[in-house]
Structure formats: structure tokens, C-alpha cells
Amino acid sequence: ELVKELVKEKKFTSTNEIMETIKEMFSDILEEVLQCEIEEQLGYEKHQRRSDGPCNYRNGATKRKLKTQFGEVEVSVPRDRNGSYEPQILDKYQRSVDGLEEKILSLYAHGMSTRDIQEQVKDLYNIEISSELVSKISEKIMPQVNEWQSRPLEAYYPFIFMDAIHYKIRDNHQIVSKAAYVVLGINNEGYKEILGIWVGGNESSKFWLGVLNDLKTRGVKTVNLFCVDGLTGFKEAIQAVYPFAGIQRCIIHQIRSSTKYVSYKHIKEFVADLKLIYTSINE
Fold it and tell me: What is the DSSP string of 135-183?
């Protein structure tokens, strides 16, 4: 989805332009990891004032050119005044990082939990790292997640699909159920777009009402048709925020509800006959 948005925004005209953009992204992410490293070693963040006065300070950065699978990139490697900081992710004289890109980018792809990030960074560094460093890397990523979640949306969506994915997590040494409320929109050009993901307790129409109000706050004014399941109060929640929108029960949910009463050996034949009903022009 990120690549799709990037392509639409940049309007690339050649593969060279695409590769240049990827190189810039890789360079930015690598520099973020280096900044986390030096913060961990110095014990304070950039521009942070300390009453006790740190015994070592940042001292600018050194430009270093690296050969990668995307071509040559330039990275700013931070320095400290005492000269004690040595990047763990890069050897002092290293000039080639072929194959390292996937490990760094997997910080984004693998997930946002501390445990997941810790495993990825451990694989990346090949050393045991502190929880403070994991937290710093998480803090670098989370503002981008929050920015995406609160980004402005288009005023008009012909179709919006709404459903919740249920999963279990460990919380305070207990296994609890959570619901990820997912809203998928079809925009005016016919492209799918994830409008947002909200995490709450068990699925409820009250929580969906909050999600709908959030969509309206972020700029969605008109929706032709909502496609939802048969959750009690869901229809009323939609009508409260978008009174002129149509509402359709999701076909997939209706099929699943119907097949509950059919023997497994007959389901394939039954579903084929059922299709004649939900694709017919009229009653």
C-alpha cells in the first residue's frame, strides 16, 4: 500500500526514478538506526538538556558512501566528541552493505511489538541489545504510524467495507481477546485504500460509531454504500453519522451464515446454487 501511494504521488516516468526514491528511503532508515545507537551510548537524546551535564557530546556527522543492492547511497554517520562511538551496524571501514537492506526494512514489515522489533534488531546486529535501544527504535517508528492513522481522507468514497479481525494477545500475563476494526474504502478512481485500523475490545456497534465519527472528522463527507456484517446496532451507528448512505449486508457473511446449516459434502454444490440468487437482477 505504501508503494502504491508513493507511485501515485511521485508519478514516476522511469525505473531510474523509482530506484533513486528507494535509495533515499533506505538511507533515511539507516541514519535513524545510527541515531538510536549514539543516543543509547551517550545516555541522552539530541537537543536534550541535562542538569548533571553529560561527559560526552555529539560532534556532527561524517558522510560515508555505501554500496547497496540499490546502488551507491550516502549516509551521515554521527560522531561524538570523545571519539568513542563506533557504529555496531557498520564496521569502521565498511563500504558495502549488500543484503542489509532487507533486515533494516523488516523492522517496518515485521510488526510493532517490542518483542518482534527486539528479535529483528538482534538478527540485524548479531548481538544482545538492551530494551532501551528497542524502545528508542519503536519511538522513531510510532510517529509515522500515528501520522498515517490520523491523515486527512478524501471527501467522497463510493464504497466502504467495514469489518473486525479478532485475535488474542498476552496482556499483564493474561491472554485476552482484541478486535482490530478495519475500514477499507474504494475511492473515486476505483482503487482500494485502507482508511484506518483501530484496536479495541470485543466488536461492538458503540466502538464502530466512534470509528465512523473519526472518518468524518478526517474529511469523509459522502459515502454511497457501506458493506457490513449483521452486528446488532451497526446499521443504526452508520445512519447516525451518514444518514443518506446505503447499507448492504456483506455477501460473504451471508454465505457463511447459510452454510452453517449445510452438510460439508454438499457445501460446494450449495454455494454454486446460492450464487444464482445473489447475482440475480431481481427477486
Answer: HHHHHHHHHHHHHHHT----SEEEEEEEEEEEEEEEETTEEEEEEEEEE
For residues 181 and 82, the model is more confident at 181
> Which homologous superfamily does the CATH classification assign to the domain defined by 156-249?
Ribonuclease H-like superfamily/Ribonuclease H (3.30.420.10)
What are the pLDDT digits (tens) for 193-230?
999 999 887 888 999 999 999 999 999 999 999 999 98
For the chain, what is the largest distance between any 2 Cα atoms, rounded to a whole number of angstroms?
81
pLDDT of amino acid 49: 54
Domain parsing of the chain, residue ranges = 2-149, 156-249
Parallel, antiparallel or unpaired: strands 192-200 and 222-228: unpaired
